[in-house]
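User: Teach me something about this protein's shape.
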Amino acid sequence: MMKDGISFVVPVHNGARCVEESLDALIADASAYSAATGRSFEIIVVDDASRDGSSAILRRLASIHELRLVEGTGRGAAAAINAGILAARFPLVAQVDQDVVLKPGWLSALAAELDDPEVGAAQGCYAADPQATLFARAMSFDLAERYAAIRGDTDHVCTGNSIYRAAALRRIGLFDESLGYGYDNDVSYRLRAAGYRLKLCRAAQSLHRWREGLTGYLAQQYGFGYGRVDVVARHPSRFAGDVVSPAPMMWHPLALGLALLLLTLAVGGAASGGPWQPFAAGAATVIAVLMLERLFSGVRAARRFRNVTPLAFPVLHLLRDAAWVAAILMWLARFAAGRPGRPSHSMRPRPDAGS
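Assistant: First, the predicted structure itself:
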């Protein structure tokens, strides 16, 4: 491995919608950083069995720019990232997702965090895209509000917008390829357990092209919820979450699950002529408390970011909680049936262009 420089690793699966925009921004920022510092960089793109025209786009870009194309095995994002890390020549690995668009100065700000040898990884921050749809904007503002509460070090570095110390990743055994959503939580917890510090760098900004529309929102939230159960199964002490996903966020779907149980009992009681009002009142109370808590958070975020989108938190996050409840129930059903976990259970691929 070479002593200086940065290796970018970009896993791609059905990324035709935005991968060119992502790589163009990455190349521009990396080139500017290299010109200013003299540090070398390489870009490794792992094409993980794409079926939507991504492969042709990547081959065209590789004929124009110095991209190293690696064929993935189609076993999921964690395996694709590991393939890129194993191919990397430099001691720092910048992992950028196919739907992340770096803003100028991202690499300069984030690489500086790794000057401290105790830091194993550092993450940038996603900026809200005013041109995105409601659901995508809401996810951006929700995440930004949670980031705003972090002071000092973090205990969760999110992949897709981060730089890792390659030696630290190799020391802990790289990413867990059996995980879908949640593999970044898992590797963060293992880096912390190995003694490394993790940093959040607000100066390193990028845009995230979240899935659009209600269907995309619910699919992504289902994946987040399912992946979170996978992570908690491996790290039970993280039942209450971490600084990026704090305890209230973790407990919300459990509370909604209780409300749904009470509603079921109310319906059963009414159908059988038994008492149902206490169950219905209990369910209504729980749901009201959840929505009030989200309204408070939404108002606070709306004031902080001077944007009305977070005022939709009460309704959107109730939908998120419902998606998490469905994910938890599916995880429990598979566990009870003795079915092994797969990355695709949580991280379902974006549809290809023909679907």
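Now, about its shape. Strands lie at 6-12, 41-47, 67-71, 92-96, 100-102, 119-127, 161-165, 197-208. Residues 52 and 353 are 5 Å apart (CA to CA). If you'd like, I can walk through any region in more detail.
User: That's plenty for now, thanks!
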